[in-house]
Specification:
There is one protein chain. The chain is mainly α and 164 residues long. The protein folds into two domains: 52 residues, no CATH class; 97 residues. 77% of the residues lie in helices and 4% in strands. A two-stranded antiparallel ribbon has the order 1-2. Helix 2 packs across helix 3.
Length: 164
Amino acid sequence: METINELIDKYFRGETSLDEERMLKEYFASDDVSDENKYLIPVFKSFEEESKVKMPVRQQKKAKTIKMSFVRWISVAGIAASVVLAVTIFKSQEQPKDFAVMYGQRIEDEAYAQKLAQEKLAKVNTILERNLQPVEALSKVKTTLRNVKQNNQKTKEIIESINR
């Protein structure tokens, strides 16, 4: 019984191996669970049920599409930054007068060129913000899970203090 309690402690610290987690799942699925550990049966049962849930194929494709879209826009932003850097370097070396090239035409009006560049960067920024929303949602989920883990630890400590 001492090993099971040690494994449970290790599990909630996130230090168990896959074999140890399998042993815990088998233990809580059996009829040999000790009275002091019976309160954890619903927890492990819910973990088992949650692991059986599969994401529908349609959503998997959507997630893959979002990831590919994000990667594509990051690539476009990188290329755009490279082009801007290259134009800046060549401009400073060859031309003493400021100008930009857009759609194959030379634009010498600095204010107009800056306005066009700001519009393009605003579009890229909007696209990046929209594509980063799933990443922000994952961050919120991670924070929530951390809070749940802390609450589980506090609950366990309260139960242990009651059992003493």
